[in-house]
Write a structure and sequence with these properties.
seven-stranded antiparallel β-sheet; alpha+beta; about 35% helix; 9 helices; Heat Shock Protein 90
């Protein structure tokens, strides 16, 4: 029986090739697989064959505040992303029972910021719909978030702006750096996407002992236990997958501190520039 998790998703990338519709003998799946399945289905329009009720429920259920999960939502443009992020955040927060009011507020800001930034990246860059969900696991006390698209991938986007990048691995690592974005659109004279989404995810997960995985076409990069590992996929995914998880016990909350010291530090330190 298959147990498909963020830690072994590369073993099952063959399920998303050649219009495969047979997902048999799946005992356990996590949001990363549901997100990929939804994106794959939208791309090739297959009729899913599985005896796993959880998969069907995650793909077809409507949002319900009472659950430990937020089922698949579709990201097309930036319009409506605030609502999706709020729903994801509310479902996750209701499962944290022992937080102080201050910690609850900070965690809400952390989650809302992360969810919104990662969905904005898809809306701005993917050239494809994003398929997003999140789940809280009461037994392990962890959150997992995943978003998948069937778009062009990191390399295709970033090489238009950074001509020294030649591989998906280089493109992913470039995208993880602060302030890196391929977005050409401007708002108030600035790039609409400030390049903080993936960078913020990495810094938050470093602080919380979290884990993430990024897939772009034929390349998978995983961050766990403070280390990066890279794998070439024998069965490439078309597009991008970003998923992260962290444990409740490892969270240290203070969103204002994080923003001031990780996102805005250069601005604050610049004595010649007013900061509002």
């Amino acid at each position: 029986m298959k147990k498909i998790k963020i830690s072994n998703i590369e073993k099952y990338s063959n399920l998303f090739n050649n219009n495969n519709n047979l997902f048999e003998d799946i005992k356990w799946v996590e949001p990363i697989f549901i997100s990929m399945t939804s994106a794959y289905n939208s791309d090739v329009n297959f009729q899913l064959t599985t005896d796993n009720d959880y998969i069907y429920n995650m793909l077809t259920s409507d949002y319900k505040f009472c659950k430990t999960f937020s089922p698949i939502s579709i990201v097309k443009t930036r319009a409506g992303l605030e609502t999706i992020s709020t729903q994801l955040t509310d479902v996750m927060l209701k499962n944290f029972k022992d937080l102080t009011d201050t910690d609850n507020k900070d965690l809400k800001h952390y989650l809302h910021y992360l969810f919104l930034e990662l969905m904005n990246n898809v809306a701005d860059h993917a050239q494809s719909d994003g398929h997003v969900m999140a789940q809280y696991y009461p037994t392990n006390k962890k959150i997992q978030f995943a978003i998948s698209d069937r778009g062009v991938g990191f390399l295709s986007n970033l090489k238009l702006k950074f001509n020294d990048i030649t591989t998906e691995e280089e493109a992913i690592h470039k995208a993880l750096k602060k302030g890196i974005t391929a977005t050409p659109q401007k708002m108030y004279g600035q790039e609409k996407n400030a390049g903080f989404g993936l960078y913020a995810m990495v810094e938050i997960l470093k602080q919380t002992d979290g884990r993430f995985i990024i897939i772009s076409n034929d390349t998978l990069i995983r961050y766990t236990n403070g280390l990066y590992t890279t794998k070439k996929l024998s069965d490439p995914w078309k597009g991008v997958v970003v998923a992260f998880e962290f444990d409740e016990a490892k969270i240290e909350f203070d969103m204002d501190y994080f923003k001031r010291n990780y996102l805005w530090k250069e601005i604050i330190d610049d004595k010649d520039e007013d900061f509002y």
